[in-house]
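seq/struct pair 1
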Amino acid sequence: MHLFGDSSAAVSRAYLVPGVRRLPGAIFWAVVVGNAAAIVWLWVHGGNLSVAKTGDLLTSAARLTGLLGAYSALLQVLLLARIPWLERSTGLDRLTVWHRWNGHACLYLVLAHVVLSVYGYALLDKISLPAEISTMLGGGVYPGMITATIGTALLVAVAWSSIVIVRRRLRYEAWYAVHLSAYSAIALGWFHQIPTGNELVLDRIAADYWRALYVATLALLVVWRVLVPLASAFRYRLRVLDVLDEGAGVVSLRIGGRRLDRMKARPGQFFIWRFLSRGRWWTAHPFSLSAAPDGRTLRITVKALGDHTSRFHEIATGTRVVAEGPFGVFTADERRRAKVLLIAGGIGITPIRALVEELDGDVVVLNRALADEDIVFAEELDELANARGFRLEHVIGDHATDEGRELLSPAHLRELVPDVDDRDVFLCGPPAMTSAVEDNLRRARVPRNHIHVERFAL
């Protein structure tokens, strides 16, 4: 039954979905805050807060920032552990944003722990900072400091590789390898914190609480990042069936397997793909479905934008594939209004192309491209528009030119779609274009909660 029929009950249910769907995310953050409060309470209750001297105050602050930094590191793992109920309620793109900001907090807390520890202990020991650093790293007085230092260096390396300008200069494989080292940093933190931490050596309850946090995080990571993908690989037996050249550096891969209808993939969603061939098996990349899944095959379409994607045309038919997913909330379930506008930029047309196979009613598609030859799926989109009755407009031009400066501006959006503020808007494209168009939609008086954006955040 179509959700947007004449039934007022159906429309009412549509408005109830967001709150119900986001409930797991709210529960997650309640647990996060509750655990943080428990950590602080256990620390204070254990008699670890001391303000008698400046050195005592600084070392107390150092221990607390160290505990909260370790907790933030565990949250980093959980936020991208691909836990289904959390991803479905929040969306992997938003989880990635949370992951990024929590990463900042984690790094700052760990660095604060280091600085406060060195300075505080130097005051208590009445020696210089260089002498205190030498004492700490000597290994006798403060056990576990070497592993802690290595772990901190690894966290700094991960943060460095995540800075946008640096990441653009790194190959994806190098960036991916650096991020894997974050797990080593967390493991090294365990050996510094649990066996040797002053707060935990003398407090059995606090130590057991922290052990439970580490074990629970490890269990969720192993289940959802290792066991479930392996089980899916054996269950669905995915293989590349066809590799199709779409022109302009764009390649489509049609992937088949067994019982794919049980994946319950939806148009607009994406998977994280791993192609088990030489040079590719150890990296995983997110790509949206570029056609509505039919229960027998899945299709993705990739544009050559880097070392990895530029070699997709070399993937041989028959190559085994491991796919994690489906992920994403960029689906027809987000629709709240009878009228819909879909805006795509460049290769961002892929989830839009899949979505139009499911959306009925008053639908308009604006497809942004620099030139006619850059349009992806030109013939397919024309055929779909004729078959399904939606309006398709190709918006061609370069923003850097005088002629293209006002493309998809608020005035241009209202010119193309006069009732734009009365529609749900689905938007996907390159980050700069997406941000600019999202701002223009707000200026065109489209309510924020009716703008649904797919951000390629990984």
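seq/struct pair 2
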Amino acid sequence: MRGQKKMSTVSIVLIVQLIILLVLSLVITMTVSSATRNNSIRNLKTITNERASIIEAYVKNSEDKLTYFSKASIVKKFLKSPENTALQAEAQAYTEDYSNDIDNLEGLWIGEWNTHCIAHTNPETVGITTRKEADSLRQLQDALVKAGNGVYNTGMIISPASGKQIVSMYKAVYDDNGEPVGFVGLGIYTAGLIDTLNQLPINGVKDVTYTMVNVESGNFVFNNDSELIGTAAENKEIKAICKKLSGTAEAAQGSFEYKENGKKYIGIYSYIPDYNWIFILNDTKSEVYSLTNVMRIYMAIFGVAVFILMIIFNFINKMQEKANQKLASTIIKSNKTKESLYTAMFKDVLTEVGNRIAFSMDFEGKDATPDEPYYFVMYNINNFSRVNTQYGNDVGDWLLVRTVDIINQVFKGSRIYRTGSDEFIVAIKGNINDVAYTDIIEDATDAYKRLTAGQNTPMGRINFEFRSSVCKKSGNINTSVITVLKDMINKNSNATVGQITYNDLDS
């Protein structure tokens, strides 16, 4: 119409550009938000699995310690003759001595088949009968018989003795005719396990809580609120997961969302089939998706900026590049976080060799053939605390690093672990055709001579003392070899300074 001004070509082009950019902005927002959410969930699943593995290794290690305790000859002898005062004194001494190597111990004990306690790490408990009701006693005896040569693990409970949460387990002891003559019991405080989990922070997350539920009973095995332990989980999502996983022998993981006390939460779970437990990491939805929300706000502001400054197209391009760089930086930081978690969990920071958890992850349940057995060599720094006291912590740290260097020089290509403050273990995979135990002993002796030779330390030339032991193992391997090696050093009268003891665990 006359007098009506037509829209210029430039204006039309700018409007089209605006529409295209707004659509692109919306698509980018949705894509980035989705990718960021998925990445957050994947990261938390990885962390949940790592923590579930730590819990499983913690419990299995305790079961192994109880199994080895039950196989001690004095245990069976004493259960056959519980009135023998000489055996009673020997069994009580052995129980107290054995318990010294168990961290976070509540109690280790020997009981007759009627639950009459005849030896205990806490001597005042000896003489007490723990299950006086017939039904309760029969339930325990049936469970022990059903477990056979295995461990009957009752799970995590609140101890009636200490009022604290423990992992409680029992193992039957049989006579030569296969009849049960009694059992041994072990209670381990979960506080050490919880401390380990809490010392592994999650980058950018501070509201995390942990929960564990038995899928068969639906009851809480662990909860931040100790009063809920042993009670049924009321969360409908947890109930559904328990129903789905009940009777399942395969590991599983997943996530779910729920609402509690007006807040939205996300739960990431990992199923531990050996114990029928699901370990759940809980966090607020807002915290899990905090980066997603930040990205949404940022992209909204970006859209407004596009609308206002659509003519300054170059500026908009730079903003887009900046957004891409921020996303790339986020992914890099996430990967670095995973690497840092791995290093903190599985490596000794000072010596840069594997730690006790790494040893457990590498060898717990590992199978080795008789033709290719594993040899384990332990070196223990004698009186390490005296070294720190006499020469200072700098020399102590220097000695730890130097010890790893010397072991590496002799056992080239072997895996080395620092399993204690003053102990190291070398794991060598043998070959029956090429490597005999005498070769291992020869190398172990070579390393021992180098370690005990005079060392040029920051405090001058010093000679340090070491103890060493060697064992061979094929078949099923687990972390109990650590206990065996330590026993060879600490309890064998031949394991004196300057001698290396050898034990073939297959014979």
